[in-house]
Structures are given as C-alpha cells and as structure tokens.
Amino acid sequence: MTTKLFRHAHIYTPKMGPGPAAGAAQAEVAEWRDGSILVEDERIAAVGAAQDVENKAAGKALDEEHDLEGAAVIPGFVDSHTHACFAATREGEFSMRLAGKPYLEILKAGGGILSSVRDVRAASEEDLFHFSRRLLKTTLHYGTTTVEIKSGYGLDTETELKMLRVIARLGRETPQTVTPTFMGAHAVPEEHKANPAGYVTLLENEMLPAVAKQGIARFCDVFCEEGVFSVEQSRKILQKARTLGMGLKLHADEVHDLGGASLAGELRAISAEHLLAASDEGIEKLAQGGVVAVLLPATAYSLKKPFARAQTMIEKGVPVALATDLNPGSCFCQSMPFVVSLAIMRMNLTPEEALVGTTLNAAWAIGMEKEVGSLEPGKMADFVVLDGESPAVLAYASGARPVRLVCAKGMLSE
Length: 414
Ligand SMILES: [Zn+2]
Hints:
Structural class: alpha/beta
Bound molecules: zinc ion
CATH architecture of the largest domain: Alpha-Beta Barrel
CATH superfamily of the largest domain: Metal-dependent hydrolases
Shape: globular
Distance between the termini: 22 Å
Number of helices: 16
CATH class of the largest domain: Alpha Beta
Low-confidence stretches: none
Radius of gyration: 21 Å
C-alpha cells in the first residue's frame, strides 16, 4: 500500500446528504482551516482537522508527506456532461457561427453534429481513443478527476458500440473516473433524414438492446429539441432505456421550450441538461421530480446566449450541477475553473454554490455520489490544490489556471 499525508490544507468540501444538495443546502460547504488528508492507495483514509488526521496516521509508514502551506483544497471536479469522445475539432464551423450563421441552420446544411458523425465513423478505434485521451489529459490538468462522456457521434449500432468501448478504455487508461452514457439519440443521421420515425424505431428495437447487451453505458441521453427529437419520441426512447436498466438523462429546453424539463420531471430522470429556455412550469417539475439540473454556462457563452436561470432553480429547490459540455461544436471548453468562473460572474452563484455544483451535485447527476464529489473517508482520493486561499480564486483568477496540484485516484500531477 502507498500512504500519503497532506498537511496544512485549507479544506473546502460539500458533505454527503441523503440526496443532491437543493435550495439552501446548495451553499453548504464544510471548511477546515488547518486540515490534513491521509491517502491510502487510491482512496481517502482520513480527512479533516490536522490533529484528528495525525491520530489516524500515527504508527503508519508514510511513503510521502506534502506540506500544502495553507492552500485551498477542494474535491476534484466532476464534469457531469461532456461529449469528449470525438475524432476531430470543428474550428471552421465556429468561425461560421461567429459570422452569424445559427446552429440549427448549420445542422440542416449537414454540418454540426453530422460532420462529427462522419469523422467518428471514419476513425479507427485506436485514433478515436488517442484523440479523446489528449482532451481528457487537458481536463485533468484543469482539475477534472471524474468525467461523464456521451456517445452520439456514431448514430448507427456499430459506431455507437465502438464509441462506448473507447469511453470505457479511457476510464481504464487515464487516472480519471469515466462514466459512459449512450446518446444514440443525439441527432437523426443523414441516412434516416427522410424518415426520422424509422430511426426512433431503430433506436428502440436494435441500438438500445445492443448497447444494453454490451453493458458499458450506465445512462441513456436524448437531445429533445425542435428538428431533433420531439417530447413524444424522447419519452419513448427513454422508457425503453429504463426497461433495459439504464439511468435516464435528457438534453432539455436548450434552444426552445418544448417541455423537456417537464418530461425529465415526469420520468424522474437523474438529470436534465442545458435548460436555457426552461419555463417556470418546467423548473417546478424538475424540483418535484428530484431531477438534477446540469447547467452548461460555457455553452451559453460560446453561443452568445443568455445563461440558464440558475438562481431561480436554486430558489425553487432544484439541485444545480455545472459542467463543461466539452464537444467539437457548440462548446470546446476543457476547463472546469472557467465554468466555475462563469457561474459566479455571470449566473450570480456564490463560490460555495458553484463548488457544490461542480463536485457533489455533479456526482449525484451521474450516479457517482458514493465514490466521488466530496472529501470523505472511503471516497476516491480526488482533490485539487488551488493556487489561492479559497474557491473564490477560481473566479478571481478568471482565465488563468489557479491550480497547483491535482490528485486523481491518489496519483499526483502538477
Ligand atoms: Zn450535450
């Protein structure tokens, strides 16, 4: 066993409750001014006030001792919404958007998601792995120790299964914890353009059973949006996924208020994501259904759109998580500190609310709350040593990387 002791840490961590932190609990963060963390192999053995941890460490042979000199330490970021498995960037399309072309028009013209689909179908499994691993390495550098990755650039059974194999391999061959989500309902592929209903049938009868048999995906996600999948189609796909044992996620009310948030509430999905256009009624339904709202401020930033109504959601009792949405199109953001910065400066969350949203609530949003998201004995030794005194430095040093050290599964990187 490898034992490491970290001393003189100013620790900030959410604390596990019976469910995701909603309402006032979104801002509840425990703090130890002179804290220590004892790590055994990949897990936290003890964490908290220095003397308590020293008592637990007494008599143990320490392989490493680190003096953190009073730096703020937070749980490793949990990026609960990414599409970080792809084969090529789409910088050219970004320039088109900057020139004023709306995203749904780019999609109609065969760009957007569909060009990534062509790239991923053409890429070898090995190339797809190496491209995606490079992205994950950058996210780790910025403090992401857990990442949810969605498939959805295959849109046929074979390529979706290939993507999920690559996502599983990323989990085995990086220090990060990776949660795989099947998102065959990310767009209607070109070959089904004339008959989208036929693609929904294919999803239900062939793709979902094949994905369940493969056994990698924990969740099924659907892009419920005008011109993509309707509320009715989304409901059918998610209900089928539920019968196959998958957890449910939904891209809801990103561009138009179709009632996606209400659907997520009705189905008691684990999370509803984006929600830029969610109505008051939709927000009520999320609260009633205990659904985590996964908000993606870097996407709104990148699309030059108003941010989701995070404060209203917190007031109404919806647990809020915040993620990058890392993808080749609408948002090529690899930095959780940037997401925290936007949440504080543009969505008016407090540093504490943003911290809970990027750690423990995010872990709840991907069913990983028992393993990651807070600093507690038994959980993964995932934490970030900040270059500052408090989590507020993430917004104070906007655009920089106020990260001194990242510990993922007990492994350190600078
Ligand atoms: Zn997404």
